[in-house]
Specification:
single chain, 220 residues, mainly alpha, two-stranded antiparallel sheet, 8 helices, 2% strand
């Protein structure tokens, strides 16, 4: 009798785990699919041409709009982060068990690079975020400031990272760790610094090219 109960318990656990693990990814995909459905319905897409219209519209926007390409890269990288941190995680029965852990390269005597990975993970996210939404985050000024750029990147990444950590805590999808929040936010700040330096470099290149073109025109 005990063996039968153990078998049923194992079957129930495996079935529920198989349903639970892709649950949030399925919710996100369904949410995005409904936006696509509403867009297609608003533009009068027919059932027979729905797939073709979807790809044609996406490809046309991708080719013609640099802002669309930037936003797509940001959305893609954000999805990768969510899959790694929330959407593809197993159930964790004690999400507060290591709230003050994860600061170093050793966890319970085992070598780990998770702290470095958490730091690196949000550097590209911060850069892509500022690249896609520079005007919305930093204003319409042609010359952006160092402090404002780094502060905006740090603030957005801190809020996003906290939402991830809170979701892990709420749904038992990992461990809520202050170290993760800290390293993620620090990575966002470094991304802001890198973006600012790249932006300033591109601005200098543009000014030099303009002066060079003006010199060539004046010679003619």
């Amino acid at each position: 009798m005990g063996k039968i109960i153990e078998i049923f318990n194992r079957i129930a656990y495996n079935v529920l785990s198989a349903l639970y693990q892709p649950f949030w990814a399925a919710v996100l995909l369904a949410f995005l699919a409904m936006f696509l459905y509403l867009y297609g319905r608003e533009h009068g897409w027919k059932k027979n041409d729905f797939i073709r219209n979807m790809f044609e519209t996406w490809w046309s926007s991708f080719k013609s709009s640099s802002n669309f390409r930037r936003t797509f890269l940001l959305a893609f990288y954000t999805a990768m982060i969510l899959l790694r941190t929330v959407l593809n995680r197993e159930i964790w029965f004690d999400p507060l068990g290591k709230i003050f852990g994860g600061w170093g390269l050793y966890e319970d005597g085992v070598f780990t690079t998770e702290s470095i990975e958490n730091f690196i993970l949000f550097i590209p996210f911060s850069i892509l975020l500022l690249w896609a939404f520079q005007q919305e985050l930093l204003g319409e000024s042609k010359s952006i400031g160092f402090g404002k750029t780094v502060w905006k990147a740090t603030k957005v990444v801190a809020v996003f990272s906290f939402m991830i950590e809170f979701t892990q805590l709420l749904f038992h999808l990992g461990t809520f760790q202050i170290s993760d929040l800290t390293y993620n936010t620090l990575g966002g700040a470094i991304g802001g610094v890198i973006y600012y330096l790249g932006y300033r470099y591109c601005q200098k290149r543009k000014r030099k090219n303009k002066m060079k073109n003006r010199g060539q025109l004046s010679e003619h």
